[in-house]
Amino acid sequence: MVSSSRKYGVFRCKACGRLNLAKTGQKFKTCPYCGVKNRLSGRAFLAYASTPNEALKAVKKLKAGKA
Ligand SMILES: [Zn+2]
Q: What is the pLDDT of residues 55-67, one digit of tens each?
């Protein structure tokens, strides 16, 4: 059973280093900041969330250096 709390993931763009959101089932995600296509492997994600809102909170935490 797949945990419903891992629907969304936070990853860091390999090119510009900014934090982005992606669905965890996605294989690739284009960075909205620099346009580089990032490959999303299982370990690409720094944090997980069940909703986009939670994912945004996780991004804020990561940016604040609390995660
Ligand atoms: Zn980028």
A: 999 999 999 986 5
For the chain, what is the domain count?
1
The one-letter code for the residue type at 40 is: L
Q: Report residues near ion ligand 1: CB below 5 Å.
A: 13, 15-16, 31, 33-34
β partners of residue 19:
12
CATH number assigned to the domain comprising residue 34: 3.90.820.10
Question: Residue 40 Cα, ligand 1 centroid: separation in angstroms?
Answer: 13
Is 2 a residue whose pLDDT tops 70?
no
Q: Name the residue range of residue 46's domain.
A: 4-63
